[in-house]
Amino acid sequence: MRLQGRNAVVTGAAQGIGRASALALAREGANLALLDINGPGAEKIAAQAAERGVKALALTCDVTREDQVQRAMERAASELGGIDILVNTAAWLDPPIPVAEMPFEVWDRAISTDLTSVFLCSKYALRAMIEQGRGGRVVSLSSMAGRRGRQFRASYGAAKAAIINLTESMALENAQHGISVNCICPGAVAGERSVNIYRQLAEREGRSAEEGERDYRKLEGRFVTEEEVAELVVFLALPESSRISGQAIGIG
């Protein structure tokens, strides 16, 4: 187990890439603090992780709220014995809307959930890592949508593009502390999230949600899986990746 004795915080851990990343890290021996606004969902994943012989703590947390993030990070550091790895995966599935029609509430929620959460969780995890003095890893989920614009996905794409810049800045700021900071830019990821996007896009075009899902099923085999993304998360948490920092790594 290549991460035995290391402590990882995973946000958005109740489902999707967060769930897959948590279980992959547990397989490698990392103890876990699992943050999610869905407390029961986080508890379920924590129980599955504990079956692999690691300590797993489920923390109900709205990662857009600084007070909640601070408490969760302090508790994680206290109960696990420090924070060595942070994995930021929390995100919101925003509806496909052109900018000219986008309600401010949609923009605000996308930026808060997809970007502000990365800032807040990184802020307090980095503080813990610097104080501990043993280095660390921060891995955030950006997207290929953060590298190029996409129709009807401006709020999501803007947040994901900002994560790339934030990653580069944090990497430069924390290199002296032995902390590497990277982000992952998946293309389309197989799973319910992509199914919902295809349904919504079809409905926007005047077609049925069922037709959108059929479009997705035709392409599903070409998409990267949550587990494949999770394996890249694990690699970036390993000692072997210590010289990789400030990178936005594509997959899929």
Give your account of this protein's structure:
The chain is α/β, with parallel strands linked by helices. It folds into two domains: 7-187 and 225-245, Rossmann fold (3-Layer(aba) Sandwich); 190-223, no CATH class. It is built from eight helices and seven strands, in the order βαβαβαβαβαβαααβ. It has helices spanning 16-27, 39-50, 66-80, 104-132, 154-174, 192-204, 209-219, 226-237, and strands spanning 7-11, 31-36, 56-60, 85-88, 136-141, 179-186, 248-251. A seven-stranded parallel sheet has the order 3-2-1-4-5-6-7, sandwiched between helices. The model has no long low-confidence stretch (mean pLDDT 96).
Tell me briefly what this model is.
With 252 residues, this protein is of the alpha/beta class. 50% of the residues lie in helices and 15% in strands.
